[in-house]
Amino acid sequence: GQQVMQIPQYQHVQEGEDFTTYCNSSTTLSNIQWYKQRPGGHPVFLIQLVKSGEVKKQKRLTFQFGEAKKNSSLHITATQTTDVGTYFCADNTNAGKSTFGDGTTLTVKP
Amino acid sequence: DGGITQSPKYLFRKEGQNVTLSCEQNLNHDAMYWYRQDPGQGLRLIYYSQIVNDFQKGDIAEGYSVSREKKESFPLTVTSAQKNPTAFYLCASSPRDSRQKRAFFGQGTRLTVV
After folding, report:
1. B contacts of A35 (beta carbons < 8 Å)
2. Contact state of A100 with B102 under an 8 Å Cβ cutoff
């Protein structure tokens, strides 16, 4: 079935450093969603990208959707300890059921 | 997310026993989902339902069963046939006919089978 691959699996950064996670698919996606899961918590929706080449920003977070709609990225500028957690991309191209990537777990050293 | 409730938060069961996890939503969403999450891993879809009285198998349905008799409720039964049931179970809902079809997640149930 449809799969989305996320890299890296883990990322450790010093507070203030930037962070990027990438999501890749072998097939064209109708849209891509990003979620954040804090340690011990549940995934919370961050954003949805629909258009080819779309870029959206939320404060220090920048989300991009590739021109071919096969990849996406989430970039965090100047990480803070509140950014820790696992970031998932998700594709719901198929019949309304989302397929999640395995996530990138971010740890931030103060 | 508010509006979707899973209970209990922690659940312990003996091996060989069936157990049912509750999921209720008051968001008037048509679609509901069950995911399983193992430590350090992503979300794997167990079952989903797009409408009342209808549901579909996800990627890892073996050893699980569901029902969707009411729009607001989508209970998951973990049967004794599930080889490795200890995991974190997440229920989610979403509007069916919406461009912004984001998933709203419950707080999750952490099931431990001993």
Report:
1. 103
2. no
Helix-then-strand count for chain B, H and E: 0, 11
Distance, in Å, from the CA atom of A66 to the CA atom of A7, rounded to the nearest integer, reads 15
What is the C-alpha separation between A103 and A7, in angstroms, rounded? 8
User: Scanning every residue of chain A, which has its alpha carbon at the shortest distance from the alpha carbon of B109?
Assistant: A42
pLDDT in tens, A1-34: 558 999 999 999 999 999 999 999 999 998 999 9
Q: CA nearest A100: which of A42, A34, A47, A40?
A: A34
> How is residue A95 written in tokens?
């019949």
Give the phi and the psi of residue B83 in degrees, each rounded to 5.
-70, -35
Low-confidence residues of chain B, pLDDT below 50? Answer: none
Shortest CA distance from B100: residue in chain A: A48
Report the distance separating Cα B41 and Cα B49, nearest Å: 23
Q: Is B57 on the interface with A (CB under 8 A)?
A: no
Does A88 lie at the interface with B, CB-CB under 8 angstroms? yes
Note whether B103 and B95 are within 8 A (CB). Answer: no
Instruction: Nearest chain A residue to B31 by CA: give it.
Output: A96
Q: With a CB-CB cutoff of 8 Å, which residues 60-89 of chain B face chain A?
A: none
